[in-house]
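My current task is to audit a protein record that another person submitted. Alongside the sequence sits a line of tokens, each denoting a local backbone shape. Please read both lines and tell me whether the tokens look consistent with the sequence. Do not assume that whoever made the record got everything right. Thanks in advance; the entry in question is below.
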Amino acid sequence: MHSGGLELALVLLLAAVIAVPVFKRFGLGAVLGYLAAGVVLGPHVLGFVQDADRILNAAEVGVVMLLFLIGLELSPSRLMVMRRPVFGGGTVQVLITASVLGGLLLMYNFHWKSALIVGTALALSSTAVGLQLMSEHKALNSDYGRLGFAILLFQDLIAIPLLAAIPLLGGARNETLTWQDAAIAIGALALVIGLGRPVLRRLFGIVARTRMPEVFTATALLVVLGTAWLMQGAGLSPSLGAFLAGVLLADSEFRHEIESQIEPFKGLLLGLFFIAVGMGIDLDRVAAEPTLIATGVAVLLLVKFSILVIVGLAARLPLRSALMLGSLLWLGGEFAFVVFNEAQRVNLLGRINHDRLVAVVSLSMAITPVLVIALQRSLLLRKAQPTRPQHAPDEGLKNAGAQRPQVLIAGMGRFGQIVARLLTAQRIPFVALEADPDTVEDLRRFGNQLYYGDPTRPELLRSAGAEHIRVFVMTMDDPETNLRAVRLVRRMYPNAKVLARARNRQHAWKLMDMSAEPFREVFGSSLEASERVLTALGIPEEIARDHVQRFRAHDEQLLKAQHLVYDDEAAVMQTSRDARADLMDLFEADVGEGPDSAAGNRDPLKGADSGSAIRDS
């Protein structure tokens, strides 16, 4: 089909909108839905798209953004903690898998050079599919999810020397890696690691002060794509560059805002990537050699699965976790396509074997989502699940900051800072969001952990981990912003407790409509000042404190009563008049207890117009 860009975009979006909900409905996952849509739209079925490679090259941006977001979850300190599983588990998995698969290819009459390159390429797993499946099954923070990510990270690193070795093994010595190329690559890494953190934080700080969300989004995209482009130009993996940029921003105040801006683009482009992979499955080759292709897929999955399970058990994972690790990473990887193309270019791989290997890797990626679901539901997995952990997981895999914050403070002005200081004194972890970049910068200088962002945006709340929050403290100064944020939290997280700062009684009533507990911003300090006035007039401290406590209880009861009728001004005024009479009666019993106390008690309280309660701050 010959179609323009607009028609092609419509077809791809329509396919995603139809396929993904259908596959999710039957519990098959979004990845399989995208792959199926690609097969149907590709050149071997409906033929809407003939040049799948062009779409695949463009859609690899989705993988770049995925690695950037993963980097945002890893601070440099946590990445250092992970060095053991990255270089330990990753090295063991790649070396053993490449040796076994390379040996099998030698038995299949491959030359040793071709067997070495192809075996190593097949040892690599799909970062995009693996991480997407971990995300769908909520396994990214599990023991096997952390080890799986460490192995994938090492595979991204090993891909660089693998590409460099292909021209050398193919005899194209003029295309091999030179000392100059190595110096450029090392210099690019040093530039990103050394200057990236201060430069990026300064850049986002300047952009945030413009208060223009579209400019912030453009800046986030520029950083991701620009870092990937710089690494690619230096001969390194663009995904590695994006990952490093994410790590450098992981502990910055802009982390959650950047994540919320990038997430929609990542999801869309990653879906396009899976569609392009589906388009690349050569059904003609599969139909011509079904037994050979099926055997290749089975051997690839079984070899990688067995080795990954052994690696998981060696890392002291429970058997169930080791089985899940194997099922998530036993597939081939998208980087294998690049390796196969390069190997064919330097005559290390013939056309027929190239097509066979592409079909094997593509089918392994396509069937993995189904096999993961089947394995999870199997009796073997249920029986293998221990009643209690048999061994503690490797210390290098423990999540830095293991305790998830269960409190979110939205707004770090004077009100929110007091709440934050008290929680800090009690060593209670919390997440703080503030929309003013200057406030964020000032407070972070004093060691406060807070993040820049608008708490009225749902994607920012999700990025900040709001699904784990038990108590939301909404302390924004602007009442309308406060109400919007509370309304959003109530809609997204109806079971959470919401404590909200209220400007006045009218604001408090609106918050109470949404089942939020209001705290009038000057009510407590005004009562403290009132108690001080009474003691200054000679009333004993105990009596003054008792009067203030009784007044507070009376006013809170009045607030609740007026909430029931606050849209009726006449009813509110009548309630206020009745409350004033009740208040006078409340303290009438104290009159006559003594000449001093009578004079001290009655005059200050009777002189107060409780009817003004509907106008208080």
Summary: DSSP finds 27 helices and six strands in the chain. Residues 179-208 form the longest helix (30 residues).
